[in-house]
Amino acid sequence: KVLGALEVARKLEQAHPRNPQVLTVLGTIHRANDDLESAARTFERLAEYRPQSPQARVELARVYLAQERGKAARETLDKALDMAPDHPPALQLRGRLALADSQPEQARKLGARLGQALPESHAGPLLVARAHQQAGALEAAAEAYRTALERGSVREAALGLFRVRQQQDRGEAARATLRQWLEARPADTEIRTLLAQEQRKSGNPSGAIQTYQKGLDSDPENPVLLNNLAWLYLERDGERAVDLARKAYRLAPDRPGVADTYGWALVQSGEPEKGLAPLRKAAEKAPDRPLMRYHLAAALADSGRDDEARRQLTDLLKEAPDFPKAAAARSLLESLAP
Questions:
Q1: DSSP per position, 13-27
Q2: Is residue 77 within 8 Å of residue 57, measured between CB atoms?
Q3: 197-253 pLDDT tens trace
Q4: Distance of CA 191 to the CA centre of its chain
């Protein structure tokens, strides 16, 4: 479809070589096709034909950034802001670059201007919040994140406020931010998982279980929630863990993490032979995740397949000598010495 659109756009360009709408469409299609050189040339022509258009320079700057031409992008955006100091897209993109350059004060000023240009939008306060956070002004950052949230349901603002509260060592306030977000958006699995992880880290595994279970009450077929809840139950109720992991595996058998949890739950419940198939699948699909390979090796050892377990452990420790379970893997390998 994109290639077909490109043919149409090129024909239009031939008929209207200086038409700004045609050039914008053509440049956008080039960018979608990852033909950044052609996109840059097209938007450079657009900027030449529309010398007073800040948006033409914003589009050109975006292509320069995709080409990793940061200096050219900054200069182009500065030109856009010289001609239109309150142009929101230019302010927003230039502010992001200021943050990338570790220039929080410049980013804060750009965010303030963006907030004035778009007084009902979350964009300005969000940029200001990030600038304050980068500068270490955490309470000012929290206030700006709250303003962004008041202006719209902005996930980035909720996560930003959460991280600020963490930086302030205000763990309960950080978790409260996530809970408030989930009250209005219970289907946000990523935030729910983050909250449960934080609850577990804070020594509240029961709270983490409740968080996952609440998500499953409204979305009982969610394999991520089932998988994560199964992992928590491994420590307290092996039978429940296997049941949850089995259901997750039926729903998402090709996800390495899900297969690993199911296989490991079976091993921990005394059924290593049954756990081998999902653990092999997990290790094959995610060879760069050493913990899954360790689980497979342990299942092989528990199943009496010592030779294969030794090979797995030897290769694993050679490739990942410092992974979190390396000491356990070495101990297991030593116990399997012929």
A1: HHH-TT-HHHHHHHH
A2: yes
A3: 999 999 999 999 999 999 999 899 999 999 999 999 998 999 999 999 999 999 999
A4: 11
- Note the pTM of the prediction, 2 decimals: 0.85
pLDDT tens-digit readout, 294-338 = 999 999 999 999 999 999 999 999 999 999 999 999 999 999 987
For residues 250 and 302, what is the distance between their CA atoms, to the nearest angstrom? 24
Neighbours of 120 (CB within 10 A): 9
Report the 3 state secondary structure along 193-216: HHHHHHHHHCCCHHHHHHHHHHHH
CA-CA distance, 145 to 177, in Å (whole number)? 11
Q: To which residue do tokens 């856009």 refer?
A: 80
Please say whether the beta carbons of 78 and 94 come within 8 A.
yes
- The DSSP code sequence of 104-129 is HHHHHHHHHHHHHHSTT-SHHHHHHH
